[in-house]
Design brief:
Length: 150
């Protein structure tokens, strides 16, 4: 009976916790590492603020990549990334992009354009302590095409 009550109290505590979505605070940078056929390996850097009282881990996940509304391929986060609690963290994450046929040619032709709308959509695996959950992710950002030429 004591175990049942303690489990109930713990679940009530965790259910009443407020979750603040981490926010990007600049420092965004992309570094192309390897181009192999339809696979592109790159690292992405960003400063992210986690306003929660607990650290958050983002586990390896796959997302769909769209550029200017056209499906380009899938992006895979290679290693888990940890955001420290109540702090701004500089994250460096390795990614692999598996591009569709002719997607690389399309991306190179878009490099001459001005601004591009980049959309990532899918499920992200996240975790806090021993608890993990898949969350829907749908983010669109406007990116200058000149950053693709570096």
């Amino acid at each position: 009976m004591k175990k049942l009550i303690s489990i109930f109290v713990l679940s009530l505590l965790f259910a009443s916790c407020t979750f603040y979505e981490p926010e990007m605070r600049g420092g965004e940078n992309f570094n192309l590492e390897k181009l192999d056929g339809n696979n592109v390996n790159f690292t992405a850097e960003a400063n992210v603020f986690n306003g929660n009282w607990f650290a958050i881990k983002v586990k390896p996940s796959k997302l769909d990549l769209y550029i200017d509304g056209d499906y380009v391929g899938k992006i895979h986060l290679e290693k888990k990334v940890k955001m420290k609690r109540k702090r701004e963290t500089h994250l460096v994450a390795p990614f692999t992009a598996h591009l569709e046929d002719n997607a690389l040619r399309t991306a190179l032709s878009l490099a001459g354009k001005g601004d591009l709308k980049v959309r990532l959509k899918g499920k992200i695996k996240g975790g806090v302590f021993i608890f993990s959950k898949k969350l829907e992710f749908d983010e669109t950002r406007t990116m200058n095409a000149s950053s693709l030429r570096k």
